[in-house]
Fold SLH domain-containing protein.
Amino acid sequence: MKDTSTANTLVPFAEFYKGGMSKVMYPIISVMRGTGIMAGFSDGTYGINKTISEKEMNAFITRYKGVEGKSADGFQDLNEMRAVGGHGTNVEVLSDWRFLEGQHLENVIGKKKDWVLSKYIVIS
């Protein structure tokens, strides 16, 4: 996989929020999740401390072979996680909205909606 740039990615698993996932794991788990190699478990965890079966490992290897050598930009989920981690939002990935020059979305909680929207322009 090329150009993953996932060091600051938001990792959407319980261990990310509740502890148990070290920062060194973020890039690896982000790529695994964002490319569909491993989606995690139905309880919202990634299962960092779980032992996987041989069957599960074979499935991961097969999925990896389908991803190997592709550009990270080709994976919507990965791009969304990278955007949230880097900018605090995935609005640029999901829409035609773009940040104004030099503006970044930070500390949005408690800010009025019109303040947030004023930081964007629409690209048509």
